[in-house]
Amino acid sequence: MSTKALRLGTRRSKLAMAQSGMVADAVSRVTGRPVELVEITTYGDVSREHLAQIGGTGVFVTALRDALLRGEVDFAVHSLKDLPTTQPDDLVVAAVPVREDPRDVIVARDALKFTDLAASSPTGVVRIGTGSPRRMAQLNAYARSHGLKIETVPIRGNVDTRIGYVHKGELDAVVLAAAGMNRIGRSDEVTDVLSVDTVLPAPGQGALAIECAADRADLIAALAELDDPFTRAAVTAERSLLAALEAGCSAPVGALADLLADGQIVKEMRLRGVVGTTDGTALVQLSTTGPVPETHDQALALGRELATEMLAAGAAGLMGERAQ
What we know:
The protein is α/β, with parallel strands linked by helices. The protein is 34% helix and 24% strand. The chain has helices spanning 14-31, 43-46, 51-54, 62-69, 114-120, 133-145, 159-167, 178-183, 217-223, 229-244, 296-312, and strands spanning 6-10, 35-39, 75-79, 91-95, 104-108, 125-129, 149-153, 173-177, 192-193, 208-213, 253-262, 265-276, 283-291. Strands 2-1-3-10-4 form a 5-stranded mixed sheet, with helices on both faces. It has a 5-stranded mixed sheet with strand order 7-6-8-5-9, sandwiched between helices. Strands 11-12-13 form a 3-stranded antiparallel sheet. It starts with 5 loop residues before the first strand and ends in a 12-residue tail after the last helix.
C-alpha cells in the first residue's frame, strides 16, 4: 500500500465525527498512512421527518455508500445499527471493532433515575422523549407492568437538541445510547443507565462498521486488523434476527447477543430479542442460547432460530408495516 492519505467518509454530526476520528487514528496506526475525514451529508441528516416515517433503513448510509462506489472515499464508518441488513455485493464490512456499551441511558431533570421520575411528577405522568419505536414499546411495557404513567414523545435531533428539551422543562427525560454519550465525552450527564432487562438495545447498537469496496483487497486486509471476532459474531446474530423478522432499522425490534462465561472460559452465546407495539400493550420477548458461533453462517443461524420462535409467538403482528 502507498503512503498517500486514506479518505474516510463520515457523516457530519458531532457523534459521527468523534467515532470516525477514533477509527481514523486506529487505521493510521495499522497502515502507517495518514487518514483524512471527508464529511458527507446524508438524507437522514437533512430530513426533519421522524425516522419511523422515512423508513429508517439506510437513511444515514446511502450517501456514504454512493461516495464509496464513486471512489470519492476509500472507506466509510457507520453506526452499525443504521446499516440495512442486506449487504451490497460490491461493498464489504472489513471490520467491526470492539463494541462500546450497547445499553440505553436517560438524561432526566433533577438528575433523577428512571424509576424516581414518576414519584416526583406533579401530574404523575412522566414525559420521555425518544425517536425510537423500539424504546417506546419497551418503556411503555415496563411502565404498564410497574404501575407507572409515562408518555413517550417522538423527538429528533442531535444530542444537544434532545438534552435541551429536558433543560427547558419541555420533557422530564430523554433516552439516548450509552455508546454515543461515551464517545462524545458526555457520559457525566447521564442520570440513569437502563438495564437490558428493561430495554433491549437496537440490533448492533454500540458497534461500528468499517466498510470499503469489495475489490480493495489490500485495504480490506489492513482494516481487518481492527476486527473483533466476538463483536462481529454478536452483531451478526442480532442483525440476522432483524432480517428474519423482515423488519427495518426503525421497527420496534430490540436484540442483544452476549457471551456467557464460566469463570474465564467463554462457554456460550445468548441472544435475546423483543418486538412490541409502541404503546407497550403487547410484547414478544424470547431468548436462545447456543455455542459461540465460529463462523458467519453459525451466527446467522442463531438469529434465524430465535426469529422463527418469535414469529411463532406472534411477533409479525406487532411490527406494523413489514420492511420491503
